[in-house]
Design a protein that fits this description.
With about 190 residues, the chain is α/β, with parallel strands linked by helices. The protein has one domain. It has five helices and six strands. The chain has a six-stranded mixed beta sheet with strand order 3-2-1-5-4-6, with helices on both faces. The protein is globular and about 50 Å long. The relative contact order is 0.18.
Length: about 190
């Protein structure tokens, strides 16, 4: 999980904070005690290591067999525990070892988790777009490096597709994050 929520006593809160990185080996995912906070570099290296262990598929006819690294951005009206439960359900259905789709990473932004807080959530969604853009820009830079490596040695090709699942207002977060990333990279 990557989050720009503040850390509270019982979980991640409703206020924006610096990006934090987390891993969970098992649940319940809606309890912060199930998660271990990681340094950004350690998180990145563990994620890239796991994706680097995916099977290498160079035959374009076998493209559908390639695994994914997917980012899930939750929607409006999801406090952290709601987002973590939805993420867990998604992982159980699509990313379990039996399904073999790959890896999924939750991006949890500071939604208030209240039905009557649509406009405040929209403001929070827009405000955290630069944080999502930071994550995607780092991936972009890494992928450019992989292209250079793969041009010299196809065995060093990327072993994963990059996918995003953005639910509800998560699409608003994604839209603004891509706009920020485009402005920075263009």
């Amino acid at each position: 999980m990557i989050s720009d929520r503040n850390t509270g006593r019982d979980g991640l809160g409703r206020n924006r904070a610096d990006l934090s990185y987390w891993c969970a080996e098992k649940g319940p995912l809606d309890r912060l005690s199930s998660w271990t906070r990681k340094d950004e570099r350690v998180f990145r290296n563990e994620l890239l290591g796991a994706a680097g262990a995916f099977p290498l598929i160079l035959d374009p006819a076998q493209n559908e067999r390639q695994r994914h690294v997917t980012f899930f951005i939750h929607g409006y009206n999801n406090d952290w525990a709601d987002a973590a439960r939805r993420y867990g359900s998604l992982c159980d259905r699509m990313f379990s070892p039996r399904q073999g789709l790959g890896l999924c990473v939750l991006f949890s932004w500071p939604s208030d988790g209240m039905k009557l807080a649509y406009l405040p959530d929209r403001e929070d969604a827009r405000a955290c777009a630069p944080d999502v853009a930071y994550v995607f820009a780092a991936i972009y830079d890494w992928l450019l490096g992989k292209q250079v490596e793969a041009a010299a040695d196809p065995e060093k090709s990327c072993r994963a597709k990059l996918s995003v699942i953005a639910h509800s207002m998560g699409n608003y977060v994604l839209q603004h994050a891509l706009q920020v990333a485009w402005s920075r990279k263009n």
